[in-house]
């Protein structure tokens, strides 16, 4: 893929408590690497990845990896408004991180109006289940996802299991939202950018990870 060519740019923010593995997920997805020890994010880190959401439609994904510590919240909040998608991440072996998902979700909704943010909920570190360390069941996570109007995916950066799914599902949802008019290009908003003249934009949609039963969430909470 020619990395200088892309039709759309999506800005996606990673949200969740400290140590849930947001940086590890991004490292595994963008570089296919896993580090047992990774420095905690201070403020916001930045990643770029190129994805073809359907044949001939290239998207530049900009990921903002936010720090989960409270002392950095004033910094991370400034990035919410210019995001079109968010991965809400919790650790399946850490109930406190799961219980704070609603708080993260509500905070984003409060700061993005009148724009739309699409969500995917991710139960991370599923490798902990084999060690008997899992404390959040799939069933209760799925119930929360349904209440938030978001799909739910379980993954592990350590093993690589399912690690591409949440990123590509969210990218597909954003692209689908563009085609349906749910997500719109707006002057002065950097959540989505397009390099395609309006008359040449793709009007057909055949998405990876397309699921007609997947709930959609407009963040006009």
TrEMBL record:
Official protein name in the record: Uncharacterized protein
PANTHER family assigned: DRAB11-RELATED
Xref: InterPro entries: P-loop_NTPase (IPR027417), Rab_GTPases_membrane_traffic (IPR050209), Small_GTP-bd (IPR005225), Small_GTPase (IPR001806)
Organism of origin: Pygocentrus nattereri (Red-bellied piranha)
GO terms for MF: GTP binding; GTPase activity
Superkingdom to which the source organism belongs: Eukaryota
Cross-referenced SUPFAM superfamilies: P-loop containing nucleoside triphosphate hydrolases
Chain intervals with Polar residues compositional bias: 196-213
PROSITE patterns given in the database record: RAB, RAS, RHO
Stretches for region Disordered: 191-221
Recorded family membership: Belongs to the small GTPase superfamily. Rab family.
Keywords recorded for this protein, A-Z: GTP-binding, Nucleotide-binding
Pfam families: Ras
């Amino acid at each position: 893929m020619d990395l200088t060519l892309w039709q759309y740019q999506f800005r996606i923010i990673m949200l969740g408590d400290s140590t849930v593995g947001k940086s590890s997920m991004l490292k595994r997805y963008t570089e296919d690497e896993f580090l047992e020890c990774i420095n905690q994010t201070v403020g916001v880190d930045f990643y770029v990845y190129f994805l073809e959401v359907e044949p001939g439609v290239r998207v530049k994904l900009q990921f903002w990896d936010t720090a989960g510590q409270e002392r950095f919240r004033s910094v991370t909040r400034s990035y919410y408004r210019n995001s079109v998608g968010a991965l809400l991440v919790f650790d399946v072996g850490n109930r406190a991180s799961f219980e704070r998902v609603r708080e993260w979700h509500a905070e984003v909704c409060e700061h993005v109006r009148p724009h739309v943010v699409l969500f995917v909920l991710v139960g991370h570190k599923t490798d902990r289940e084999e060690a008997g360390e899992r404390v959040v069941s799939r069933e209760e996570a799925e119930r929360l996802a349904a209440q938030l109007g978001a799909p739910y995916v379980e993954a592990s950066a350590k093993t690589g299991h399912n690690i591409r799914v949440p990123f590509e599902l969210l990218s597909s949802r954003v692209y689908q939202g563009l085609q349906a008019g749910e997500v719109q290009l707006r002057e002065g908003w950097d959540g989505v950018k397009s390099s395609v003249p309006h008359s040449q934009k793709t009007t057909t949609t055949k998405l990876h990870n397309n699921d007609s039963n997947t709930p959609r969430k407009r963040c006009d909470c």
